[in-house]
Design a protein that fits this description.
By secondary structure, this protein is an alpha/beta fold. About 40% of the residues lie in helices and about 15% in strands. The strands form four sheets. The protein has an eight-stranded parallel beta barrel, surrounded by five helices. A three-stranded mixed β-sheet has the order 7-9-10. The longest helix is centred in the middle third of the chain and has 21 residues, at about 220-240. This is beta-glucosidase.
Length: about 425
């Protein structure tokens, strides 16, 4: 029988619209990818054509045995110009949700997953005091149209990600071999290319380059407040229109550890990356927990990766044990149900993904056995896809995609997770 999970546990995988749909032409990322000297290793183009193949992909999940799908609705499609909502795009996402319903798959929808409408960035982006109201207006429109089909909504993906990005950029400038970002960043090492890119960026948005505030740009303290205020205002709007929809936010969390003498540094990291945001989360219906690896602190700060450690394609230590540890830490600070909204590894060795899933899920099962309420596990990612500035080279998927033909091939890891879901147990 193995280690049983609770009845009604949500077993699934995640995607983000810009990374899988393709041709997201009204988004800030589309513009940035196609600039001269772009920091993106390649443009997203048609991505993996999920925009047209979503029914095929959802049906594949159902055949595997998965019962949940976390995906995002793209703001840049819904509101391509400020105040102009696109009915055809609402109908597109309505059909996605109906496809989930037909396949008995529970949708967990994220309303903002990194990409934003170009007009929002021109209006000050994620540093503007007007952004929370604009985001709440978009969320209001989506919920009015689709709320009856949305049991779970994540307002914003990895609302704290800019803190990690700032740290990564600082460490890369110091050439420190430490854990990588939990998002695909290309920090670049060609200064003239960087200057060309920033000039092109400035021209494209009609702003000084320091005022192009996309979601993944380093934040000011004011910008962080803007993001979490956007979560708060969106949550209130969603509850007014669709009170039965469960609302949460997702955060990117390392398993923060310390060696002797590093306890204070580790405590500061937890405060900076998680604890300071607790006031915004206390009345959420669930918490979306996202973990990929650990970060170990010493007296002087974050330590290099351990000698001889297995490293993923993202430059992270292979460390599936981190998931259970972070679930335990979060549960002590926040008394709401947890859904694991992302967990996985970038690798071409699918046997390591299978082993990672097993080890991570054993940690989750131990947490549940100790009384912690974990309601689901969404693997990142359903398919190999566009890893932001790093392009298509990083393989996170349970399903491989040939981008020439767009043909899908289910990996052994996809079959493995599906079998776990069918049994509701790990061996």
């Amino acid at each position: 029988m193995g280690l049983l999970f609770p009845d009604h546990f949500l077993w699934g995988a995640s995607t983000a619209a810009h990374q899988v749909e393709g041709n997201n032409t009204n988004s800030d990322f589309w513009l940035m990818e196609n600039l001269e000297g772009s920091l993106f290793k390649e443009p997203s183009g048609s991505a993996v054509d999920h925009y047209n193949r979503y029914r095929e992909d959802i049906a594949a999940m159902a055949r595997l045995g998965l019962n949940a799908y976390r995906f995002s609705i793209e703001w840049a499609r819904i509101e391509p110009e400020e105040g102009r909502f696109e009915p055809a795009e609402i109908e597109h996402y309505r059909d996605m949700l109906l496809a989930c319903k037909e396949s008995n798959i529970t949708p967990i929808v994220t309303l903002h997953h990194f990409s934003s409408p170009q007009w929002l960035i021109r209006e000050g982006g994620w540093e503007s005091a007007q952004t929370p109201a604009r985001f709440a207006r978009y969320c209001t429109h989506v919920m009015r149209e689709l709320g009856d089909l949305l049991p779970y909504v994540c307002t914003i993906n990895e609302a704290n990600i800019s803190i990690g990005i700032k740290k990564i950029m600082k460490r890369m400038q110091a050439q420190a071999k430490t854990p990588g970002a939990q998002v695909g960043l290309n920090t670049g090492d060609n200064m003239s290319q960087m200057q060309k890119y920033f000039m092109a960026l400035s021209k494209a948005f009609g702003l000084p380059p320091t005022e192009v505030h996309s979601f993944l740009a380093p934040r000011t303290e004011n910008g962080l407040t803007t993001i979490f205020q956007a979560h708060r205002e969106a949550k209130a709007a969603i509850r007014r229109i669709s009170p039965l929809t469960k609302v949460g936010v997702t955060l990117s969390l390392y398993d923060i550890q310390s060696v002797p003498g590093g306890e204070e540094q580790a405590a500061h990291a937890w405060q900076e990356e998680f604890l300071q945001f607790l006031p915004y989360l206390q009345d959420d219906d669930f918490f979306g927990l996202q973990n990929y690896t650990r970060a170990v602190y010493g007296p002087e700060g974050i330590l290099p990766l351990p000698e001889g450690a297995e490293i993923t394609q993202m430059g992270n230590e292979y460390y599936p044990e981190g998931l259970g540890a972070v679930v335990r830490y979060v549960s002590k600070q926040l008394n709401i149900p947890i859904i694991i909204t992302e967990n996985g590894i970038a690798t071409d060795d699918d046997t390591r993904r299978v082993a990672f899933i097993d080890q991570a899920l054993k940690g989750v099962h131990d947490c549940i056995a100790d009384g912690i309420q974990v309601n689901g596990y969404m693997h990142w990612s359903l398919m190999d896809n566009f890893e932001w500035q790093l392009g298509f080279s990083k393989r996170f998927g349970l399903i491989e995609v040939d981008r020439t033909s767009q043909e899908r091939t289910i990996k052994p890891s996809g079959i493995h997770l599906g079998n776990i879901a069918k049994r509701n147990a790990i061996q």
